[in-house]
Amino acid sequence: MKKIFWTAKYDRVFKTILCDERNIHLMKEFLSRVLEREVQTVKFLRNELPVTNTKEKVKTVDVLAEVDGEYIHIEINTGYGKYVHVKSFEYFTTVYNLKTKRGDFYDAKTKFLHIDFTYHLGQDVPVREIYQVQSKTTGRNYIDNFTILEFNMDLIMKLWYDKDKEILEKYKHLIMLDVSDFEEIGKGDGFVEEFGKKVSELNEDEYFQSFMTIEEDREYSFNTEKMEAYDNGLEEGIEQGIEQGIEQNKIVIAKTMLQENMDKSLIAKITGLSLEEIDELQ
Question: What value does the mean pLDDT take over residues 175-202?
């Protein structure tokens, strides 16, 4: 079987290399290029957000860091569906809520920046898009310290494959996240060359490879296909399929319980089926 080369498109590779505190200079340089300004300090923060009630699931963001006194949250989205922005926004607003409360006052000065590197956005979405909470009528910001920056990774990669030299020079720090051959893109660029070397070394590490399995690759593919189905307007069909699967599972369980001569009332209570529906299964 051909060995898979895991690029930094996958968050585990991205974090292993760029979130290594022993090589903090890599994240500084990466963010300097993304933000188009020199980054002086990077402090990685705990990426598991607190759970506020028992019904809430654990929220783990890809990267959360304090950068030159600003809070930056990074998400790498290997696929896109309508829920992706909702999830990212929920996570980012949780960070905003936690960090803006400063004792007995709200911090309206510290900047909060969420960065999305998103695949499967579509060719009609710009390479780089900036979002803020603002008025539709006047364009005035509702709050000034909350910004979202998103990169259309597929479009960036397409322009790279089309040999657009301008894109290469401007976005080689993003192109490097999804290539396996760094010879051309890294030529004369020490940062990209070092990054490429570390990605290649990581792919030769058997301990690392044991985590990045074929099953995980299939999971990514399944999730991508599911998100593409949402994008193609098949939401209703998907939801119906899920509901049908749940109902079919109830029937299978009920039939098994009937074979064990269990009480029909108990079967109805466990499966949610009515007594009439259970009678029809006999």
Answer: 93
